[in-house]
Amino acid sequence: MLKKFRKWYHNLFLKSNQVFREQQIAVKNHIVEIKDAKYFIGKAMVTDIPELLKIEKSVYDGQTPWNYTTMLKELKREQDRLYLVIRYHDQLVAFIGCAMFDTKRECHITNLAVQKEFQHRGLAYYLMTVIIKKARLINYDQITLEVRSSNYRAQHLYSDLGFYRTGIKNNYYVDNQEDAIDMALDISEMDSRPNNYGL
């Protein structure tokens, strides 16, 4: 009896939520213009992993916080993960990833990286706004992330988007035991306060 109830509940509520989320976070490959330059944006695929790792190496001084296996596991979780890439002349130059948690109504940014030669061109800002819009479409309440305590540029970007500090994780990063700053954006309050990114 309990098994039948669980199946009925899943089909009626959870499955419909899942279908709704998949429809709202769907991304069609297309061209976007960011600061007078045209880029290709689309969902990340398994064949992108070598280029994703290459960007991580360029950003993290030769290190790759995530290896091939971790990336592969993330990209295969299409129901509760969203990974986007930006290409310029067929070269992968930036990407972002997030995990979605229906029970907490929370989207967590897992990764954001822009190849060094393409930084300061608005790509990270653009990718963040895409994720924020998607999280709003699926009626989530909050977006969260961690950022290195020494990465003031990223902290400034997130603050500009409305994120605020919620805590700190001591010795969070494995490579150098650097602290992570927890930040959050309350999407539910977004309509009642001004912002500068057209959401």
UniProtKB/TrEMBL annotation:
It comes from the Bacteria. Pfam families: Acetyltransf_1 (PF00583). Residues 32-188 form the N-acetyltransferase domain. One of its GO terms (molecular function) is protein-N-terminal-alanine acetyltransferase activity. Its EC number is 2.3.1.266. Keywords: Acyltransferase, Ribonucleoprotein, Ribosomal protein, Transferase. InterPro entries: AcTrfase_RimI/Ard1, Acyl_CoA_acyltransferase, Ard1-like, GNAT_dom. PANTHER family: N-TERMINAL ACETYLTRANSFERASE, N-TERMINAL AMINO-ACID N(ALPHA)-ACETYLTRANSFERASE NATA. This is Ribosomal protein S18-alanine N-acetyltransferase. It comes from Nicoliella spurrieriana. The gene is rimI.
